[in-house]
Amino acid sequence: MPGKLSSPQEGDRFAAALAWLEGEFGLPPKLRRSLEAEQGIKLAGDRLRLRLFPPRISQYEPMQPEHPLEILFEDDFCLVVHKPVGVKVHPDGQSRQPTLANMVAAIYSERGEQIAPQHIHRLDEFTSGPVLYAKNTYSQLKLDAAMAGKEISRVYVALVQGVVNPELRVIDAPIGKDRHHKSRRRVSPSGQRAVTHVEPIEAYSDASLVRLKLETGRTHQIRVHMSYAGHPLIGDALYGGSTRHLPYQALHGESLSFAHPLTGEKLSVLDPWPSRWDQLRKQLQS
């Protein structure tokens, strides 16, 4: 990736070029050190060349999904794919079923491209929606920092039990581990701060459709908070939801918004609601 220096440099031209690079592109210090160690930065005249896209082989075995993986957005820096219900984001050593990581690896294996995208966030196995990947180290460091700084917005929709009070707008309750159940979380005074913003969309006789925005990203946050508020997700047996209509939690990632790691352009990627929900909403309305 060549970049033209904007003015003549004095003294140590290489150090000045690096300072310009950090200011111009926000090059993370960790990546700069890595590039220097791997001789991935070269200065030739007034041109600074960076080897930002060295070939990488994924650590995950390429495995084709039953249905083609839906790519919602892709360029040289980022990838956003739709994660289907029942698919884990990465292997856990307990199952041989293809995970999203295996499916993503298959995309580049099939293309003959040596790219190993790294996921920036996760979704529960039975939650569908968009998952963001970084396609190179530069993007990963920038997007990881954005995630830590709460600069990546994730909006979900959920079908929950009971009619949600329109005045319920924010659930601010710390979440910690449930010492009685290793897979479950619970609201606990000693837990980590967790904030979920709630927007009721539709109300049925004994259920509601809500839009939820995460301010924090705790494990099972939406599921825990809605159950705590008296409205467990439909199908979410782990947190008190009935499986009468659905055998897994009715939770879907509706959109994902983030600043492009190179340009800073605000990107918003939409993921349509599951088609299964059309029938489910009709059942709830009747």
TrEMBL record:
Q: Which domain of life is it from?
A: Bacteria
What's the protein called, per UniProt?
Answer: Pseudouridine synthase
Q: Give the first-level EC class, as a single word.
A: isomerase
What role does it play? Responsible for synthesis of pseudouridine from uracil.
Q: Which GO terms describe its molecular function?
A: catalytic activity, acting on RNA; pseudouridine synthase activity; RNA binding
Query: Which UniProt keywords are present, listed alphabetically?
Result: Isomerase
The residues covered by the Pseudouridine synthase RsuA/RluA-like domain are 79-227
Q: What GO biological process, any one, is recorded here? A: enzyme-directed rRNA pseudouridine synthesis
Q: Where is the active site?
A: 124
Q: List, alphabetically, the Gene3D superfamilies matched.
A: Pseudouridine synthase
The record's similarity note reads: Belongs to the pseudouridine synthase RluA family.
Recorded E.C. number(s)? Answer: 5.4.99.-
Q: Which reaction does it catalyse?
A: a uridine in RNA = a pseudouridine in RNA
Report the InterPro entries cross-referenced here.
Answer: PsdUridine_synth_cat_dom_sf (IPR020103), PsdUridine_synth_RluC/D (IPR006225), PsdUridine_synth_RsuA/RluA (IPR006145), RluA_PseudoU_synthase (IPR050188)
Pfam families, per this entry? PseudoU_synth_2 (PF00849)
Origin organism of this chain?
A: Paenibacillus lentus
